Amino acid sequence: MRRWYYLLLALPFLGLLYPPLYSTEDPTLFGFPFFYWYQLVWVPVTAALTYLVYRRTRPPERAPADRPARFTREARS
Amino acid sequence: MKDQFPVDGVAIAVFCGLFGLVTVLGFVAARWKRGNLELIDEWGLGGRRFGTVISWFLLGGDLFTAYTFIAIPALVWAVGAGGFFALPYTILVFPFVFLVMPRLWSVASRHRYITAADYVKGRYSSRTLATAIAFTGLLATMPYIALQLVGIQVVLGGLGIDGDWPLIIAFAILAAYTYTSGLRAPAMIALVKDTLIYATVIVAIVYIPSKLGGWDSIFGAAAKELPTHDQPGALVPSGADAQVAYATLALGSAMALFLYPHALTAVLSSRSQDVVRRNMSLLPAWTFLLGLMALLGYMAIAAGVNVTDPNETVPALFVNQFPSWFLGIAFAAIAIGALVPAAVMSIAAANLFTRNIWKEFVHPDCSEREESQVAKIMSLTVKVGALAFVLFLPTTFSIDLQLLGGVWILQTLPAVLIALYTRWFHHWALLAGWLAGMVAGTWIAISQDYTPVWATPVIGATAYTGLVALTLNLAVSAVLTVLLGSRGRADERDETRPEEYDELRETREPAPTVAAGMR
Looking at the complex, does the CB of residue A72 fall below 8 Å from at least one CB of chain B? Predict the structure, then answer.
């Protein structure tokens, strides 16, 4: 079930690898032609999608995985 | 021909102060997260102990090199929209890496692999294939290091400093602290680099447009000016040729980036798979910066910057727009920005040489101590080589070779990244595919006079040469795998197991068995 989330990562590829989709000057935003602001908008969108996939595909049963020092020290003592 | 910039005392003072600061940091780094620097894991991968924050700074500082910050705006200045492919490229690279790299991290930490070639050797038990991968990595990295020097050179020129000696001094310092501190040095310096670069770019994109009459007039000036260039540029790519080139360059570069040894080194130095995955959603902060930085090319057009060497676009714009003290900060940001990748690249090349050439062919039973010693000396050799490259050969030579480097490194994708998912390909088939891709890619790139695209017959448009060569590479590998069938496969060993790729593992601190044996 969790694996379906990975499909979200295909969206930026679809949105960016077909330039005819966005190779126009209008509409402009804050003086930026569409070609430029459209691609810049994909930056936060892609980051958000990747973060969502990261959260949703992380195994829930484990403690936060970024505490190795404590984890190993406990294991050793 | 070089343009002459005036000597700016204040800017030079600020620049030298910041440069001194990172020099001290570089040496202090040896004591940070203390480990036994006589082990190659510790010297060359920082003990695989970096968490999310350090990894973010290190990867950002390593991937977004000084040359990027010089070359991308220069390209946008020269050709317009075509140069902006760097943005989709650095957007797409992170979701791609999010899928692929955790698997490599996992299997590498389990088997103590340091390089991509280590992994290939373990996966295919083929020394020949592993050597081909190591050779490609070394070949692609050398000109890349040389280009970092070009970045420093351009900035020094902008400060009005002439001659080769400042470059030699800067590089000697870099070599010394890389030798003593290993990967810890660039990781620590990356904190300073990244802060300075961020400050510079944010100031540049707020301050310069306000002086030039806003974004409207910047894009307006670019739209008017670009079509008048010798090679006419445009504000948006129009026509199939320009658009196919744009998309294939973005995709091909995104697939190539993390095959570079310096990118792998930074990934493998992370503490866990989780750190790698999380960072792929945080690194786009750099992409945004690069996108804005690219627009400096248009600001240069609007400001009427006129240089003979496009690489001087950004320095000329800064000299023309910034007050002296901030000019010092901005130039230091770019120069220090060159030091981080140059250090990581030389470490990565040293790891490759030690693991996959020295230990493989020269001294197979060398001790852990010798391994680390060879790597340290090799990191110096690589830098001297790169320095000689820049001092004695024309700059265009480094740039051309770096373009070829991208085409070459992409040819290792089947043996390194596809292998993470399937071992279906036969190792001899992979080797033949690699050779086909290398030869075809090199030949096409040279025949196109070192431009990155080629009018590909089958699709009837210009596409990125690296991707064309990779397609040939994959076709040859697949056909030969089918032809070879199971012949020569029965005795093949694969030392990795499927579950080792998915495991969410942590690096222990420090790797117990190894450390115990050394002290």
Answer: yes
